[in-house]
Amino acid sequence: MNDNSANTPLQAYRALRTAGELRADPAQELAAEKLQTLHRRLERYDPTRGPGWQELLRLRRREPPPEGLYIYGDVGRGKSMLMDLFFATAPVTRKRRAHFHAFMAEVHERLNRFRHTAEAERQGNDPIPAVARELAETAWLLFFDEFEVRDIADAMLVGRLFEQLFQLGVVVVATSNRAPDQLYEGGLNRQLFLPFIQQLKQQLDVLHLDGQLDHRMLLFRTLPVYHVPADEAAETALRRTFRGLTDRERGEPAELTVKGRILRVPEAAAGVARFGFAELCEQPLGALDYLALAQAFHTLIVSGIPVLGPESRNAARRLVLLIDVLYDHRLRFICSAAAPPAALYAQGEGAFEFQRTASRLTEMQTSDYLETCRARAAQLGRESRRA
User: Does pTM surpass 0.85?
Assistant: First the structure.
């Protein structure tokens, strides 16, 4: 954010607009205004204030907390950006932001720890109220990225857990690619999950961020796609780019079938795949594997391309094949590397031929090349949303 003095989400959002980092988007403006309203209400609300905080944690809240917010919409509409602004400016000390799957994994761990605690050392035999109290004591403003319920164990738990959290005055803000009524769609025993959906819609204001702009396009016009050197700063930049393109902190493992073999993708989401260099170019992969990637994704992010020498001729050859396939299929290629393209493989068998690869790597950073990738990215994005 350019304007560090902005102390409300709407001020921060408009500062980005003024700086030219965001385009005009009525849907985003509406979301920012709703977040602004919640921000103001939070200034006057604190369930820890006054006597008996520990006691209040054990009783039903007398003062209703502010209504939370559930923002859903397609990838690239700015949900994570808006969450960033709200979290940074929220006038709350006890706040926490988490990927929803990571949060639920922690909940299961806490439940298991409770069950293995001696009865004399715990309060009652029901672990859910106890875990809810622990969570509320840590943070009473919870932010969830990628609110999504897929696991039956989570589906059977969230209703009771969130009922307790809401009673304790916890305020929830969440982003998701799915509307509440689509959560756990097609899941086993989904009828048992439906009361939680109603509870969620009662406690949170539901907003469909249905802007027509895909702000990932602006991201590609403003952010570098080739990061030198391949250090921690470059890794942070790649993570930020992955999140900007997918609305996710991390992707999920995926598998592609290539001539009866399995090609494993370490991280994938919304048409974006992420690899380390060794996983792509130091393994026995070939043109068919890279073609499968090009057909399945519109963007490939690769970290840690080293300077290659004569002893790395096989890895260099695979890098040549990879770039040729990505270039021919107009994929976006985002990477971190130890050196500029021309210096990646200056000596060794095939080094002269590598000059063409270096030229292509340079061209793939240009706005003209990235513009030619837009149609393919849009097509795969639509397919990803239907899936």
Answer: no
Helices (H), the chain: 9-18, 26-43, 53-56, 79-89, 100-115, 127-138, 152-167, 194-203, 216-222, 232-246, 277-281, 287-296, 313-328, 351-363, 367-372, 374-386
For the chain, the straight-line distance linking the first and the last C-alpha, in angstroms and rounded, comes to 33
Backbone angles phi, psi at 3, to 5 degrees: -100, 95
- Domain boundaries 9-208, corresponding CATH code: 3.40.50.300
In the prediction, which pLDDT does 212 show?
Answer: 57
Q: In what order do the strands lie in the sheet with 204-208?
A: 95-99, 141-145, 171-176, 68-72, 204-208
β-partners of residue 263 are 256
Indicate the SS3 state at residue 196.
helix
Query: How far apart are alpha carbons 168 and 162 in whole angstroms?
Result: 10
> What are the extents of the domains in the chain?
9-208, 216-386
Residue 61 has pLDDT above 50, yes or no: no
pLDDT-wise least confident of 101-110, 236-245, 328-337, 369-378: 369-378
